[in-house]
Amino acid sequence: MLSNKRKVLLGVTLLVSALSCQQSQYALSTPGRSEPPTVITKPLPDKVAPQIQQLIASAIEQTKVTTSYDPAYVGIEYPNGDVPQETGVCSDVIVRAFRKSGVDLQKEVHEDMGRAWANYPKRWGAARRDPNIDHRRVGNLMVYFERQGKSLPVTTDRNQYLPGDVVSWDLGNKVDHIGIVVNVWSEPSKGYLIVHNIGSGARMEDVLLNWEITGHFRYFAN
To answer: What residues contact 217, with CB distance under 8 A and at least 6 apart?
Structure first.
């Protein structure tokens, strides 16, 4: 028989593993969470794709709406299903921003998994597709972007990461995280900020190089 303490720890571990986005907000915080002293909103190029403008605008808008983090498994509609806007996980930032750009990642990932099930990770013990959760797992989003030919080289050169790019990280112990580069520039670090949800809601922060970068994706051409 498991003790009550071990049962609680096991439950927390399973909850974190369910989404593989990040650990509980009580166990993980953003290094150097304070905002940089000087930021500038840089204008996008005149001929930038409208989808990129919509992607960025949605990501920034989420910082005013999504104020909490909740990794619980939730049954949602399909397609265009979502958890309440005021909460979610790191992957929900991406899914919501892409929907504003005309791409429903819930539907796209679900259909692509049907075409290439063997290509997608199985570390969650999934035996079949699940439109409630598949698109909310960072590993699945990474495979989908890669299969669409949207991968770019992973580097620590800040200049290679442009507004609208999607970035994934390993926070340690194989815990995945994901966010979007926006057109707000940090003068101290000479790089763009990231909109992400690591435990306290969607935030715009200078965190590009805070963790090991595992993926760099550009879905819409600049």
So the answer is: 142, 145, 146, 150, 151, 152, 165, 166, 167, 168
